[in-house]
Amino acid sequence: MYPVERHITMIRFCCLTAWVLVCHFSRGQSYNLVPNASFDYATSCPRTEGEVDLAIPWLNTLRTPDLFLVCAENDNFKVPHPRKCTYLQPHSGEGYAGLTTFGNTREIIGVPLKQPLEKGKSYFLQFWVAIDDVCSTWDRGTFTDAIGMGFGEDNYDIPDFPALEHRGTILYDTIGWTAVYGCYIAHGNEKYLFILNFRENDQTLAVSSDPAVIPVFDYMYIDDVAVIPMNPYPDSLPYCGDPIRLAAFIPEANYRWDNQSTDSIRWINGGGTYTVQVTLGQCSALQTIYVADVLSAIPADPSLVICDGTQTRLQPSIPGITQWDNGQNAPTRTIDQAGQYLAQISNECGDFEQHFDVTAQDCGCRVSAPNVFSPNEDLINDLWRPYLQCPTLDRVLQLEIYNRQGQLIFTSSDLEQRPWDGRFNNVLAPTGVYVWTLSYRTNKAGVVRTEYASGDLTIVR
Predict the structure, then answer these.
(1) What's the CA gap between 205 and 145, in Å, rounded?
(2) Sheet containing 108-112, strands listed edge to edge, beginning at the edge strand earlier in sequence
């Protein structure tokens, strides 16, 4: 079982040791992004059907999903005998939700996440499910297999496909709970979570306790819903001179730091880059933590050079709340002209300024390309293309990719809309080394030229 509400914020601890006041910071974050994950907190006790929204901020997303609590006066919604024909203790706490998942009537519950999911980051997903007992006046003893969790950007954005799903094995347990869990890599900006059966009736396995009765209706209970980031530490933080305590307390998770420590807590005593592998169940993610020493991180020589006609991104070398001299409040700033720029940064160490002196020059054309990519349909590093920094670019003529036998396996004249997905004849190309060539046309002051670039890339999986 995973905690519903656990907030770990930055706390400053101080103690008097040998007559010297020693202070350090503890850094962490709230882990489960699902509020009221066990449906325990309600504005009032349920009295009738369709009141899951009493367990704020859960929503009756579709029809009348129910709330069950110990305090309910109506026996149909009282724990541990919901609907009068089931004996089911909560997985934790004092309540749970219920919804129909099969038949002519379908129900959906939803909840806003504490914060949107971040693109490309890994999350551990879990919820617990139990099945309504045989009750002739309700479901006539139907048992099914399908229940899942999905995400949307608003409370009306019910997803078509699950991020997590139980399917393929009929769920029969009416007195205990079954964990449904898995890993998920966020597309970015997922703000709402939904629980429902994503499958049509003819795609759902269904049986009846009475072979003579056709399955017509199923009802499931839900408890302890969890969305846990697999990057539990801050991505960046300032080092002020005092030790920093990085702490993560995800139950049952394993940790391995770059110094081979397997503790969830690590003390940081200086700036640098630190890495930790966090593993929870079958989910694993490598997190990199950048710690900037505020006394030495801001460079004494802030000069930068950009190429004429191109853009670059300015980013302060220490983390914090950043305000730019144009009034913009953002951690980075994109510029396309030479000049002097100022960033004012505030963090727990104090207030700082970083100056950027930017000059421009004619750089000609530069072509860069990743030399490794992994087209395995996990939505990470699945597409490949070269990148042109070329103020005088007229247009791309042709990208060509060859295998080691010299066979042409891919061409494109639009790098943005048609990068290589690692396929040849609609089949993923085997791992190994490939050669690419790029031709493009430039126009500098009316002089048109065709230029070329080439290189190699390696497919890994």
Answers:
(1) 6
(2) 59-62, 108-112, 192-196, 147-152, 164-166
pTM of the model: 0.66
Quick one: DSSP state of residue 242?
S
76 vs 362: CA distance, rounded Å: 76
Structure tokens at 453: 């670039």
pLDDT digits (tens, 9 = 90+) for 350-361: 999 999 999 887
How far apart (Å, rounded) are the C-alpha atoms in residues 102 and 104?
7
Q: Give dist(CA 429, CA 176) in Å, integer.
A: 46
Contact between 359 and 340 under an 8 Å Cβ cutoff? The reply is: no
Query: Residue 29 above 50 pLDDT?
Result: no
User: From CA 32, how far away is CA 337, in angstroms rounded?
Assistant: 44
User: How many C-beta neighbours within 10 Å does residue 456 have?
Assistant: 12
Buried b (16+ CB within 10 A) or exposed e, 311-340: ebebebbbbbebebeeeeeeeebebeeeee
Strand 272-280, strand 254-257: pairing:
antiparallel
Helical spans, DSSP H, in 71-207: none
The mean pLDDT value for 58-66 works out to 94
CA distance 192 to 156: 9
User: Given this model, what pLDDT does residue 140 score?
Assistant: 59
> Residues 6 or more apart from 360 whose CB is under 8 A from it?
305, 306, 307, 308, 337, 338
**Can you tell me the distance from the alpha carbon of 294 to that of 270, in angstroms, rounded to the nearest whole number?**
10
**415/25 Cα distance (integer angstroms):** 47
> How far, in Å, are 27, 242, 243 from residue 21 at the CA level?
20, 11, 13
403, 433 Cβ separation under 8 angstroms: no
- The Cα 423–Cα 425 span in angstroms is 6
Domains of the chain: 11-31+232-293 (2.60.40), 52-229 (2.60.120.260), 303-361 (2.60.40.10), 366-459 (2.60.40)
Distance CA 402, CA 432 (A): 11
Cis amide bond preceding 375, omega within 30? no
398's enclosing H/E stretch is strand 393-402
